Amino acid sequence: MDIVVKGRKTEVPERFRKHVAEKLNLEKIQRLDAKVISLDVEVSKEPNPRQADRCDRVEITLRSRGPVIRAEAAASDPYAALDLAAEKLGARLRKQHDKRFSRRGARRVSAAEVPDHVPGVATLNGTGATGGEEKKEQVPTKKVGSLEVQGEGPLVVREKTHVAAPMTLDQALYEMELVGHDFYLFVDSETKEPSVVYRRHAYDYGVIHLRTDTMVTQEHSPEAGGTLGG
């Protein structure tokens, strides 16, 4: 297995590539996860001078036969950002390794008990509150991919499709911590519905389930609207 290093809108010097190979010790990683398939490192740069202390961002993505593990960090230079991201990746790898060897014969941990077993993981990132939407002015719209965009933009659209096996709420919480995100989209194995688990205040979590309602679908369809209107 090789480490793939790539830059997003920036050049990656050979010196940095060598530093990545030294920092991410493949033998050590494979001792923690022997089923590693690929290890990708993406470097990007923020051109905004107001963010000079966080202008370089490094994202590490480890794919194996188990859940994807991702770690990212930003700093004033790519070497410092890599060090921070590598430290996060190592911690998540060790957590996965310890759980894999301790889960045999052990009972499943409920969602309510996750903070007791994984201390400090539910630190709130931001206020958690959604801001009010600004009033939309009457401006021209244009089509960008499958979206209608108002005004001139600029707009960056990143669209991803993932194949996911149904999982329990406990597993979704666990995998959310592995990728270091504040939310995680999954298919609930009990209801077979798309769901999202997310962090709230303190050590609380929230879950949103989507359920198909045929009445709502009919109400919003053009044919239903025409019938009602007639």
Q: What kind of sheet is the major sheet?
A: 4 strands, mixed
Number of helical segments? 7
Number of strands: 9
Helix content: 25-40%
Order of helices and strands: EHHEEEHHEEHEEEHH
Numbering strands along the chain, what is their spatial order in the largest sheet? 1-2-3-4
Cα(first) to Cα(last) distance is 64 Å
Low-confidence stretches: 121-137, 225-230
Mean pLDDT comes to 75
Estimated share of beta-strand residues: 15-25%
- Structural class, from secondary structure content? alpha+beta
Rg on CA atoms, Å: 22 Å
Protein model, in words:
The chain is α+β, with helices and mostly antiparallel strands and 230 residues long. Helices cover 31% and strands 24% of the residues. The strands form 3 sheets. Strands 1-2-3-4 form a 4-stranded mixed β-sheet. Helix 1 packs parallel to helix 3 (78-102). The radius of gyration is 22 Å and the shape is globular. It starts with a strand and ends with a helix. Mean pLDDT is 75; it is low at 121-137 and 225-230.
Summarize the structure.
Helix content is 31%, strand content 24%.
Topology record:
Blueprint: E1 3-8, H1 14-23, H2 26-32, E2 36-45, E3 56-64, E4 69-75, H3 78-102, H4 114-117, E5 141-144, E6 147-150, H5 169-179, E7 183-187, E8 194-199, E9 205-209, H6 214-220, H7 222-229
Parallel strand pairs: 1-2
Antiparallel strand pairs: 2-3, 3-4, 5-6, 7-8, 8-9
Features:
230 residues, alpha+beta, four-stranded mixed beta sheet, three-stranded antiparallel beta sheet, 7 helices, 24% strand, disordered C terminus
